[in-house]
Amino acid sequence: MRNLVIVESPAKATTIKGYLGSSYRVVASKGHVRDLPKSTLGIDIEDHFHPHYINIRGKGELIKELKKEAKGADRVFLATDPDREGEAISWHLSVALGIPVDEVQRITFNEITKSAVKEAIRAPRGLDMDLVNAQQARRILDRIVGYKLSPFLWKTVQSGLSAGRVQSVATRIIVERENEIRAFQPKEYWTVDALLVTEKGKELTVHFHGRAGEKEKMELSSQAAAEEICKAVEGKTFTAADIRRGTKQKSPAPPFTTSTMQQEASKKLNFQSQRTMRVAQELYEGIDLGADGGVQGLITYMRTDSLRIAAEAQTAAREYILEKYGEKYCPGQARSYKSKANSQNAHEAIRPASMALDPARVKKHLSRDQYRLYKLIWDRFVASQMANAQLSTVSMDVECAGYLFRATGYTVSFEGYMAVYEETLDSEKEEKEEKDQKKRLPNIEKGETLQSKAILPAQHFTEPPPRFTEASLIKFLEEKGIGRPSTYTPIITIINSRGYVSREGKSLVPTPLGEVTTKIMMESFPDIVDYQFTASMEDKLDCIENGKEDMESVLSDFYGDFAKELDAAENAASNKNIQLPVEETDMICELCGSKMIVKRGRYGKFAACPNYPACKNTKPLYKKEESGEEKEPEIAPFKCEVCGSDMVLRNGRYGAFYACVRYPDCKFTRQKVKELGVQCPKCGSPLVTKYGKNRTAFYSCSRYPDCDFSSWDLPTNEKCPNCEEMLYQKKGKNMLVCKKKGCGYKRELPSEDTEK
């Protein structure tokens, strides 16, 4: 019997091929094969919102090949991802390949392991059309909003803009935070600390709390108020009025969901959400572990909002904890965590696929990013199943001259889960408070007297709310019920790439374009940018998925009000005269003498003459250092081959490159490459690193195209002891090999020599 398994990605196909016998052929659809057309709305609103799907351009040959494979197979299994998008891809595949919906054999697995794949093959199911319709409803809603609102923005703001159902809300969130920061009025306040010395000569710092005998904390709003306290206690003896000691249990954080993984990866690893999800996808789809297990997935499905853990996984984690840490670290019962009300409990939380593959064992097979994220997921999951940490706490009240000073602290008496993992705190303030509380206080008895060594008043000002980072924005979206695990990263990517938001370090800052667009959206389309409305729409999509709502009724209810808002906005558009604020620079156009302004292009900001198109002069915009001084760009040691102007270093989607300073009038570019200190085996010129279509590194001669040498493996300057040919370091391996036919020489390298 000949069986065909269709998955989404080639990497996933490679992994699954190793689990199934020769009677199974595994191929990849490479994502969606059908979608709405780009040139038209593609939805017949009058005909029950019927979508008109077409084969995606460039997928014709692939569809033809898949049809041929399906026709020659006895059974076709559709094994796309276990979520709405994956279910929709399976449905589109069934239509494109001519497989009747009621004959589809759909299989899903939460982890790509041999046992999970084989179990899924043994128990295929039909297509879940509720899941498909939930995805269709989201796609149709987003298409209607995007295709109806974008032309309105073209007329009122500028051409080329786009609006989106959820991206507009996300932009509003960032704009409103910026407005809060601008409107913030700092308030002065003071603190008074006392550095004291115990009878045994130990030092400790206590913080002013208020008047003795009063529970409420006393705020010091002026220097005079602080000085009054200092004057009263200066040179006086302090007395320990109350000492409270106790113990406290601290529980571990639950295993990761998509949002918490993105937040922690941002805080602990400095990963942007897009980078986190790309690496997680690689870990899920499969890594070649060689002799340590072949190709297999290392984590469960990474798009989830569930905290559920399979019983087998809990048991495996407990066995691992008992073996590695001992009985004291393993709680009496397996830990379970309650998911949020609207979470998809069909999935599990993100966890390692096998407790046999600890990070240290597989590290040599992983890239640096893969290892760091895998270890983060591993540590969080293991800790989530461990015993509570036990803290010994102490709170101390000290009195002087009728005033109360206080100090608190704790020590860890039993690490428990903290031996493996601690969750990162959300703010610098929380981290500082946590650090202060960890200070060990000296042993003091009630009634003991303490001498003051110094009284330390300090002025402070309240601070505005911080700008959103990717981590805090994802947390906010999740708390408000806006978006779902699969949409957080696309939302941030879109508002960034379309110029509504820019990055300043980790912070997300609205651009003038983002602020103007948000203002128009709030005036003309209040529902679209309303938090509650967007969250309720997510709930309705969940109801479609659960079979509780009808797709057409949800779309119809939305479109009725939306169409009225759109008509009203278009009628009022003629009265609007919206100008984007112009950001001036200190640069003077040498061609016409005007002060140049900031413009945004596909590769970021640049300076342009305001008299365009009469004057088309442009210049690169230099980044400012923290000191405020402009940082000069890196000038290439060569000139533009087209016009002879300077070339400056830029950053694009495929890394660093040199571009002509006259861009966009001159579009000549050259990729920036780094010499590796290794000679080309063909011509002896320096070798450089280059990148393919999928950002996969390979090695090429710097004289390309005059010399066409390239290799996935890194040539070295070392000669083979058998045949004198050059040795190569295998990609991602601790091994040198000779590639001369018949030689077969190879040698293991120490781990620190592995190519980074």
Distance N to C terminus: 45 Å
Give the helix proportion (percent range): 25-40%
Counting DSSP H or I runs of 4 or more residues, the number of helices is 18
Mean pLDDT: 88
Low-confidence stretches: 624-631, 751-756
Strand arrangement, largest sheet? 9-10-15-14-11-16
Radius of gyration: 31 Å
Largest sheet composition: 6 strands, antiparallel, barrel
Give the overall form: globular
Structural class: alpha+beta
Give me the count of strands: 34
Strand content: 15-25%
Brief rundown of the structure:
By secondary structure, the chain is α+β, with helices and mostly antiparallel strands.
SSE diagram, text form:
Blueprint: E1 3-7, H1 10-17, E2 24-28, E3 34-35, E4 43-44, E5 50-51, E6 54-55, H2 60-71, E7 75-78, H3 84-96, E8 105-106, H4 114-122, H5 129-156, H6 167-183, E9 188-197, E10 203-211, H7 223-233, E11 237-250, H8 258-269, H9 273-285, E12 287-288, E13 295-296, H10 311-324, H11 359-362, H12 368-384, E14 389-400, E15 403-414, H13 428-437, E16 449-461, H14 470-480, H15 488-497, E17 501-504, E18 507-510, H16 512-524, H17 531-545, H18 551-572, E19 584-588, E20 595-601, E21 604-608, E22 618-620, E23 635-639, E24 646-652, E25 655-660, E26 669-671, E27 675-679, E28 686-691, E29 697-701, E30 710-711, E31 714-719, E32 726-729, E33 735-738, E34 746-748
Parallel strand pairs: 1-2, 1-7, 7-8
Antiparallel strand pairs: 3-6, 4-5, 9-10, 9-16, 10-15, 11-14, 11-16, 12-13, 14-15, 17-18, 19-20, 20-21, 21-22, 23-24, 24-25, 25-26, 27-28, 28-29, 29-30, 31-32, 32-33, 33-34
